[in-house]
Amino acid sequence: MKHAVVSLTVNGAERQMLVAPGTTLLDALRENQGLTGTRRGCEQGACGSCTVLLDGRTVMSCMVPVETIDEARVDTIEGLTPPQGLHPIQEAFLEGFATQCGFCTSGMIMATAGLLAKNPDPTREDAVRAISGNVCRCTGYEAIIDAVLDAARRVSAAGSARAA
């Protein structure tokens, strides 16, 4: 078993890590980088709790062998949070009561971030499709869908405020 050196840009910072063959992006983030906001759930790509952005696309990090993404950009929930407080997506989830136990929340928020990066004005159907790979066992989905749509309004308003 020959280990590989993988270079990634994680949350804007260049990182190099030595990984064993078959190490998943999830394991590299949690165990090599200490980024535990990305949750370990089913480890089969079915629950969405490990959702991150990989070069701007939402992926289930438990399904990505890290040695296959050398030189990629990875964004996790830790990178979404600005130093001055919560990201508008996080605010929408908290204020909309879209979090219960919180286990699925980081994956839901990252799926929302991926959606809004591509589509800043999503429909309800877009929101449903964006979170369709993420399982929540506590809230049902209405509060989460509402939070995704509220997040879109908040992100758009924040962008408008910066442009002014």
UniProtKB/TrEMBL annotation:
Task: Give one Pfam family.
Answer: Fer2
What are the leading ranks of the lineage?
Bacteria, Pseudomonadati, Pseudomonadota, Alphaproteobacteria, Hyphomicrobiales
Q: Which UniProt keywords apply?
A: 2Fe-2S, Iron, Iron-sulfur, Metal-binding, Oxidoreductase
Family annotation (PANTHER family): OXIDOREDUCTASE WITH IRON-SULFUR SUBUNIT, XANTHINE DEHYDROGENASE IRON-SULFUR-BINDING SUBUNIT XDHC-RELATED
Q: Which organism is it from?
A: Mesorhizobium alhagi CCNWXJ12-2
* Ranges where the 2Fe-2S ferredoxin-type domain occurs: 4-80
Can you provide one Gene Ontology molecular function annotated for this UniProt record?
oxidoreductase activity
Cross-referenced SUPFAM superfamilies, in alphabetical order?
2Fe-2S ferredoxin-like (SSF54292), CO dehydrogenase ISP C-domain like (SSF47741)
Question: What name does the UniProt record give this protein?
Answer: Xanthine dehydrogenase
Q: Give the InterPro entries listed for this entry.
A: 2Fe-2S-bd, 2Fe-2S-bd_dom_sf, 2Fe-2S_ferredoxin-like_sf, 2Fe-2S_ferredoxin-type, 2Fe2S_fd_BS, Beta-grasp_dom_sf, Diverse_Oxidoreductases
